[in-house]
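thought: fold this chain, then report.
action: predict
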Amino acid sequence: MFINNLFFKIREIIATSPAKRDWLIYLSLILVGLVNLAGWLIILAYFWQVNDFIVLQYNIYFGISSLGPWPILFFLPASGLIIIMINFALSFWLYLKERLLSYFLAIAALLFQLTILVGVILIVYMNL
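observation:
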């Protein structure tokens, strides 16, 4: 019940916030969505037919330090999606009070998502 009320409260904040008309926040939201989608698609494109374990973590001192099944990689873009939702909900909520902080949250979501995409690309590169 609490989660349902929280979801509707966040939806109401986003629907009534003037931040949805701000070009910087709107552009950042679109770019973050595209980068997140690219992460999901890269994982699916390279690993959907893999049956063996893949390298999940590599250390320059010891070499391969973690192996596992490829669906574990979906935790990377999923965590990015959670951060996107939290950052943009806070950004929309804080827009009228602290516009600069709202911009920082929107840009931070984009930088975080780009970092996750680089991680996904490096994992793909390690397994080729």
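thought: worth noting. The chain has one domain: 2-127.
final: tokens above.
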